Predict the structure.
Amino acid sequence: MNSKLIWKFVLIFVVMLVLAGNVSGIGIAPGSTTVDFESGLERTVNFKVINNENKDMKVFFNVEGELAPYVTLSNLLVDFAAGEESKQFSYTVELPKKLKKPGTHIAKIIAIDLPPDADSEGTYVGARVGVVSRLEVKVPYPGKYAEAKLRISEGQPGEDAVFVVKVYNYGAQKINKAEATIDILGPTNERIATIISDTKSIDAKGMRELKAVWRPENPGLYHAVATVRYDGKIARAEENFYVGDVFIELLNIDVKNFRLGGVAKFEMEVESKWNDVLKNVFAEIEMRNQNGDAVGNFKSTSTDLDVLAKEIIIAYWDTENIEPGQYDATITLNYNDGEKTQKEFKADVALDGISISFAGATARVVGSDAGEGIFGSGIIALLVIVLILINVGWFIYFVRRKKKK
């Protein structure tokens, strides 16, 4: 066989191996669990580890963070067989009688994918992938106390940019009236516009969303400052946002083989719009019910995105206690250790599928009976087919050339 033909075969297999290597072998769900502080509280929290590649592997568990002394894991080192798609584990949290500082206290439950030949000894220098499930314990503030987060659904000039101010009441008393004033600043810090949100009350330990809309005329980088006034007090939040072309775009979301009560696998196709490598690209997704309460908060795998490249990143949502219905959600694409772009969307959750709709992306719903295909990704399959066709072309060319001789 001609040497050029051999190199074409080699190229096909190299590309397949490189693409396969970009898929994380391990996932964890839920991404976070929130607990309201109670003196001496004891609770068992369940979580799942997903064997994303259906391979033989060992998983090592560890706990980090200020609450680590109060968390006991049910397992430290477990084996996964190739046919085991997921396993359920648990940890027990035993809180002290008092946590002095109000606010959020955190423990990180870390699952690490080890080499198959690892054992219980050593420091696991060969570990490849680690994923985290967070335990967040909320200690209430006395009286009324709120914190705010600002989410902005970026758009194009002449289109509505939606501002969502999430107001968390971490106090022990109800907030009767909360309203946000949002100042929009230009590149030289001049005020371009001021918009006012709707007004809502917020129960103790509750969260509500205040919304406002602004239609920009010119592309560029802007800065938004949200001032929330509530019952004589003030909370602030601020964010940069882009109008016009962004550096990274969400092209598509796939949720395959879903059944309510299980783990939903979100496959998100992202594309770089930038002329340099985008570092540490990952997605954060927050799901909220119609009352504005957070019912899921989870992160995707991370990757570096080459110039103008497309790639799939994966996140898992555990729907064990989720009811069918429509949920509001925010997806935040993070990159370059601080840059981000956000989109608001709606998710219709049914017994055997999730339908997602939002501006700038498409969603495909696949029920529990749908297959993933031999390659598990349409992009990989298409690329391999193209390479095979190129190879066939080379083969025909050399055969004809040999006959002419």
User: Anything to note?
Assistant: The chain has a mean pLDDT of 79. The chain is about 10% helix and 55% strand.
